[in-house]
Design goal:
The protein is α/β, with parallel strands linked by helices. It is built from 14 helices and 14 strands. The chain is globular.
């Protein structure tokens, strides 16, 4: 019997630096795919390679067929014509269906409604909070919520499963679409334990001192780390304004990432006179990010809305506590001793939470953070999703055989 084929649809090039949790989810589903599946990816070409044709490539030790719809560099930056729209239109009149299809945005499925095969939609944000966000630029659909929900009502019935990493979003979908409730469920996001793991305390402190020396900072510098898209959703400006409220000059903020707010963030850093306390690292690869997690005293998140950020799981897996605003699933995820949740989004409140973690590291032990993250290991989570898919595949084949003999 032939292998089932999974085709993953998302607007990025996995062989180029591309920032975001969805990209990490896709990479994990490729890396940890069992041998029983053939895996394909429909994405974009960030370099000068060919487009519009299937290419056999290797990613994270796994063979994958890649179909880039068009060329586009810097997919982290907002454009006049949104990448999601261009990607969706790129699927028009294509025939890329397979046994299983994973979608990570709703818009592309406007053109796949009648494609045969089992479709699964992954929901990566708390949709309700996302639509209510005060930051209008955070998501274009916020300006047209009625249109978005009308599109949603039309498109959701095509999915065999709707998997959300956020409990609020899961409940919202089940309430809004009771006829589809049995198909809607919560799924854990996951981290790659081959990459994100803790160091012994002595090694951790040595890495911290080396980072301080590399940046020309005092040996006793303590690092706070943010990693992600520089986008209104993440509200990186709140990071800077919170640091300005923190009197301890030994604290240095590392910001890893790129996006439309990069220039604005640099200007705000200069306005607040934080040049010596903030380093904008730009985009970093996965291995470099893991190294930064292991030397940081805390990972900090000031998002306006979220699903369950993978970078939070990666920080915890490296033994690093998390300080977050009330956004997405993170406040529910964090167990005692693994970080703090800010009660509001005021800079002084965020700074006070950072200070509490930095002053009392013994209250946030590495082991507690690692144990908190352990159930979210990709080897466990991703293989569970594939196991369910394979079971459905065998059941459908059995039913087809039974029908053939009746």
């Amino acid at each position: 019997m032939r292998k089932p084929v999974l085709t993953i649809f998302y607007q990025f090039d996995p062989w180029r630096s591309s920032i975001g949790g969805i990209q990490t989810v896709v990479r994990n589903f490729i890396k940890f795919a069992p041998a029983e599946f053939d895996v394909r990816l429909v994405g974009i070409e960030a370099g000068n390679g060919a487009v519009g044709t299937w290419q056999r490539r290797e990613l994270a030790g796994r063979e994958v067929e890649f179909f880039p719809l068009f060329q586009q560099a810097d997919d982290d930056r907002r454009r006049l014509i949104p990448t999601s729209l261009r990607y969706s239109l790129g699927l028009w009149r294509q025939s890329l269906a397979s046994d299983f299809m994973h979608f990570h945005r709703l818009e592309p499925t406007l053109f796949t409604y009648h494609w045969p095969g089992q479709k699964m939609l992954f929901v990566h944000n708390d949709i309700h909070q996302q639509m209510r966000s005060e930051e209008v630029k955070g998501i274009l659909w916020r300006q047209f919520p009625g249109l978005y929900f009308a599109l949603e009502r039309q498109l959701l019935p095509q999915f065999e499963q709707i998997l959300s990493c956020n409990s609020e979003s899961t409940a919202l979908y089940q309430q809004r679409y009771p006829r589809l409730a049995a198909r809607i469920s919560l799924v854990r996001n996951s981290f790659d334990s081959d990459v994100f793991y803790p160091l012994a305390e002595e090694e951790r402190q040595q890495s911290r001192r080396q980072q301080a020396e590399q940046l020309g900072l005092p040996e006793n510098t303590q690092f706070l780390l943010f990693a992600g898209r520089l986008h209104p959703q993440k509200d990186p400006l709140l990071l800077l304004r919170s640091l300005a409220c923190l009197a301890d000059a030994r604290v240095h903020l590392l910001i890893a990432g790129d996006g439309e707010l990069a220039a604005t963030l640099a200007a705000e850093r200069d306005r607040l006179r934080l040049q010596g306390r903030v380093t904008l690292l730009g985009p970093v690869d996965q291995m470099a990010l893991a190294h930064l997690h292991r030397l940081a005293s805390a990972f900090v998140l000031t998002s306006a809305y979220e699903g369950l950020p993978l970078v939070v799981l990666e920080a915890l897996a490296c033994g690093t506590p998390v300080v977050t605003t009330i956004a997405g699933e993170t406040p529910r995820l964090l167990e005692a001793g693994c970080g703090l949740v800010c009660r509001d989004r005021q800079p002084a409140t965020v700074a006070a939470a950072w200070e509490a973690v930095l002053r009392h590291p013994d209250q946030f032990p590495s082991l507690a953070c690692v144990q908190n993250a352990r159930p979210y290991s990709a080897k466990t989570v991703v293989e569970g999703v594939y196991s369910d898919m394979l079971s459905r595949w065998h059941n459908n084949n059995l039913m087809s055989v039974q029908r053939a003999f009746t």
